[in-house]
Amino acid sequence: MAPATPSGKQTGRKPLMAGNWKMNKNHLDAILLVQKMAFALKEPDFEAVDVVVCPPFTDLRSVQTVIEADRYAIQYGAQDVSQHASGAYTGEIAASMLAKLGCSYAIVGHSERREYHGEDDALVNAKAKAVLGAEMNPIICVGEGLEVRKAGAHVAHVLAQIDGALEKIPADQVRRSVIAYEPVWAIGTGEVATPQDAQEVCAAVRTRLAELYDGGLADQVRILYGGSVKGDNIAKLMAQDDVDGALVGGASLDPGEFVKICRYREFPA
Ligand SMILES: O=C(CO)COP(=O)(O)O
């Protein structure tokens, strides 16, 4: 049973703090960054939260070496993956290659992939299936842009992305998937969603999961919030019933800040 959050919520879901380094840090920088995090984090931190870093592909081997050599409890994953298993796909990385490197997670459908690489829900769905097929856990990103938010259509928009991303994925695989709600207008802008905004959408996602799958699955899937998460705003977000963790961009590049996020319980909400 996971420990209670500051608000006293008791969900049974272990919180997950994932750092998305995006296109930052080379494979040598990565060694230093992971070591700094690993030195700061202690056993009780890992009992309280799952800690995941998602560096660029070129850093994964370095990160694996540091983590395995010293048996750090930090987990790691990739920021993207190919939907294809293998073959003539120049520049692509297969899920099986990531699994072989010890990755536990792969982010799929990040809004930057959707926006700059034209990824749609069908592709996100195919990538999630590839990740699950390789026995890893996808972190499936959803979230609305500013125009959709202003029009008040954010919940419908996100639920349509959920329906698309999860299409024909069986319950036992959805159970080990992670959903990350990242409103595009909050990413890298310093404008974090209010805890109520985050809760509204995360709760709607959970309700949708309950509609799509039975057997209590909706209560088991972790739903993260992402978008300008920092050490001083995480506790209020985590106090929300349906927010089970964070997908952190900029602040995950600062080991002190990321460790503070992982230790949100020590700071008042
Ligand atoms: O996109 C994000 C994580 O995937 C969020 O980025 P920031 O935390 O820098 O806003």
Automatic annotation (TrEMBL):
Its EC number is 5.3.1.1. The keyword rRNA-binding does not apply. Substrate binds at N20, W21, K22, G188, S228, G249, G250. CDD domains: TIM (cd00311). HAMAP family: TIM_B. NCBIfam families: tim (TIGR00419). This is Triosephosphate isomerase. It comes from Actinomadura napierensis. The lineage of its organism: Bacteria, Bacillati, Actinomycetota, Actinomycetes, Streptosporangiales.
